[in-house]
Design goal:
The chain is mainly α and about 120 residues long. The protein folds into two domains: about 40 residues, no CATH class; about 70 residues, no CATH class. The protein is built from seven helices and no strands. About 5% of the residues are buried. The model has no long low-confidence stretch (mean pLDDT about 85).
Length: about 120
């Protein structure tokens, strides 16, 4: 994570909510560039090609893990989906900022004990 933050800083990223990866000129990389990076990764790591690893795959995998460990409401909010009325359950359950921060801490600090040890898969 520190390497990604350093990259963003040295490449001119100024918006903390904006794109992370930038060209040396400071311009955010495009979707096409992400495609190129993942194709290159897959050429060098056959398992990544077999598993069809992509940015979307990472997002899906992360959100699935968060949902299983922290619940639907936290995964929903972690994904940036703040419209809670798109499902019947979403009308009644909401994650707090603390819930989201806890999930983030556990995804970036894997050695941290789980708040739900009986659900550690």
């Amino acid at each position: 994570m520190q390497h990604l933050l350093n990259h963003a800083t040295t490449r001119g990223a100024t918006d903390p909510d904006g794109p992370l990866l930038h060209y040396a000129t400071g311009r955010p990389i495009s979707r096409r560039r992400y495609d190129y990076i993942w194709n290159r990764v897959k050429r060098h790591l056959p398992w990544a090609a077999t598993q069809q690893i992509s940015t979307h795959w990472l997002r899906h995998t992360t959100l699935t893990w968060i949902e299983r460990h922290f619940g639907f409401a936290t995964a929903h909010a972690y994904a940036g989906h703040f419209n809670h009325h798109d499902t019947a359950t979403g009308t009644y359950v909401k994650a707090s900022l603390e819930d989201i921060a806890t999930a983030l801490a556990h995804t970036t600090q894997p050695d941290k004990p789980s708040p739900h040890p009986d659900n550690d898969t």
